[in-house]
Amino acid sequence: MEFDDEVETSQFDVYRHKFDVMSRQFLDYITPHIILRWIAAYILVMIFMSRIVWVEGWYIVCYTWAIFLLNMFLKFLTPKFDPSIEQDIQNESVEEGTSKMDENDEEFRPFIRRLPEFRFWLKTTVSTLIAIFCSFFSIFDIPVFWPILVVYFIILFLLTMKRQIQHMIKYRYLPFDLNKAKYASKK
């Protein structure tokens, strides 16, 4: 019996590799087109929502998808480095006498998101496509009283956003760049 040192690749692996390369090329092409990406995502969301309303079903799929999007949106609004943890660490170092910063020192730190915009768009698009796909199978059409899900989601959204906004106010960060800074000329 003779063993070959070469590893045989299956036809599936070849097709998977081709798909990976094509999808990476597409993502690399679409990355700088922010507005077009979000328009496409919005169209997909509208297709999914109109499908849910039209067929009057798959409310659990829609609810799960909405909770996932809420979770991704919160990660998008949250800074990568939580200021509450940094403040606790700074307070501990002040108590130990090892802090070098004054309380008046306000150094500029750029807002770095926990979930970057591109990843947020990609996860939104993929989750919407999965939700549309799931809405074609009756196994996912679990009978529920949908108004309860809507009310629960609204309450969850309001409470979560209230907590997030309070966190943003307390630690003085704004996740959106509203306008470009303008400097006066030296004339």
Automatic annotation (TrEMBL):
Transmembrane region(s): 34-52, 58-77, 120-138, 144-161
One Pfam family this sequence matches: Rer1
Localisation per UniProt entry: Membrane
Keyword presence, Transmembrane helix: yes
InterPro entries to which the protein is assigned, alphabetical: Rer1
Biological process (GO), any one: retrograde vesicle-mediated transport, Golgi to endoplasmic reticulum
GO CC, one annotated term: fungal-type vacuole
Organism superkingdom: Eukaryota
Keywords: Membrane, Transmembrane, Transmembrane helix
Topology of this chain in the membrane: Multi-pass membrane protein
Signal sequence extent: none
Annotated function: Involved in the retrieval of endoplasmic reticulum membrane proteins from the early Golgi compartment.
Family under the similarity heading: Belongs to the RER1 family.
Protein name: Protein RER1
Organism from which the protein derives: Pichia kudriavzevii
